[in-house]
Each structure stands twice: as C-alpha cells, then as structure tokens.
C-alpha cells in the first residue's frame, strides 16, 4: 500500500528519476564558485580600518600619558572588564600633564566584548582601539592586559614617563596641541612609586647591578 502511494507521488511530481542526484545540486554549483577559504594564519586578514581590536593607552607628543585615571571607561564598560586606579602626579614623578594619572590600568580580555563603549566614554582620547585581533590565549591570567602592555610605544620626540611637564606650559596647552615634542634636555625621572632606586643610591651597591636585584639582595 505504501509503495503504491510512493509511486503515485512520483507520477504526480515527475521527479522520481532525478531524486538520487538532486541532492548533489548544491555541491555541483559550489564547485564552480570562487573559493572562500582563507589561508589564516599564514596570510593574516586585513581588517576594516575602524575594526575594534585590542585597546591602546595613548601618549601626548612628548611622551606623557593621556590617561588621567578618572575611571569613566571602567564605569561605561558593560562587561566589567576594566580596572583603573588613579593616583596623584608629583613634580618629582610625573606621568601626565595634569593632577592625576592612571597608576594601575587593566583590561580583562576574557570579559571584553570589544564593543567600544569605553573609548566613547574617555574624555581625553587616552583610550582607543587598534586593529589587532589575535588575543586568544589558553591562560586566563594572560588575558588580563596590564598598563605596561596597553601603553603606546615611544615615537620620535617622546621621552618615557615619568618626566617633567614641558616648561612654560600647563595641562590645557597639551590639549590645545601646543606641545609637539619633548623639551630639549627632558630626561626620565626615577619611578620611586614602582620601587626604582635613584642612580646615586644604586651606585652604593656596586657598579653594573640592576636596581631591582640590589633591593632583592638586601
Ligand atoms: S570594548 Fe566594551 S567590553 Fe571591552 S572594555 Fe571596552 S566597554 Fe568593556
Ligand atoms: S582611559 Fe580615559 S576614561 Fe579611562 S581612566 Fe584613563 S582618562 Fe579616564
């Protein structure tokens, strides 16, 4: 009875003969289409110019940091992926032109959804996003990027922080674009808050030893 119904259907539709090969239709069509296979990672894909990738903490043209430690990015983040601790600059140890700087800055890429809300919230354009997308890691700890990892590299005319503000300028001048490079003679200050030892004190331990090792050996 069932076979009769089956034959009836084939007679009605007229497709019985083609059924065994009809399923290959999609396969045959795909054989003549352009291949979509990408040779990644041998040939990395170029992203769109405004692709949301890894973050970057930017610097002013003289190397001072743009982050003022205000935490607005952390408050804007829907994934609670940013941790910021601000601190006061001093004349002896200055990281940004104004009163405060970001002493601790971390982004947890195990949480981040790369939505970009944090960079919209940043009032100083300290935080932007790069096109870098290779962020995968097998360790959760490695996915927490520190300030040192996020801070932009030094370009020509910059001196690494901490260092003094450009003489004769104030914070507003930096945002007006009046500071275009580090003043002649600008040198990096000693980062006492990070446990660095001043040159004179370090020399008491003997020549050639890195300061960190001398502290360990006391
Ligand atoms: S991109 Fe989005 S999820 Fe990632 S840190 Fe910024 S606000 Fe949070
Ligand atoms: S990155 Fe921008 S929003 Fe975040 S703490 Fe620094 S200045 Fe504030």
Descriptive notes:
With 218 residues, the protein is of the alpha+beta class. The protein has a domain at 55-184: Alpha-Beta Plaits, CATH 3.30.70. The protein is 24% helix and 11% strand. It is built from 9 helices and 5 strands. It has helices at residues 2-13, 19-22, 25-31, 72-76, 117-121, 147-150, 171-175, 199-203, 211-216, and strands at 55-57, 82-88, 100-108, 127-129, 144-145. The strands form 2 sheets. It has a 3-stranded antiparallel beta sheet with strand order 2-3-5. The chain is elongated. The protein starts with a helix and ends with a helix. The chain binds iron/sulfur cluster (SF4) (2 copies). One iron/sulfur cluster (SF4) is lined by residues 76-77, 79, 81-82, 107, 112-118. Residues 67-73, 84, 102, 121-122, 124, 126-127 line the site of one iron/sulfur cluster (SF4).
SSE layout and pairings?
Elements: H1 2-13, H2 19-22, H3 25-31, E1 55-57, H4 72-76, E2 82-88, E3 100-108, H5 117-121, E4 127-129, E5 144-145, H6 147-150, H7 171-175, H8 199-203, H9 211-216
The chain binds iron/sulfur cluster (SF4) (2 copies).
Residues 67-73, 84, 102, 121-122, 124, 126-127 line the site of one iron/sulfur cluster.
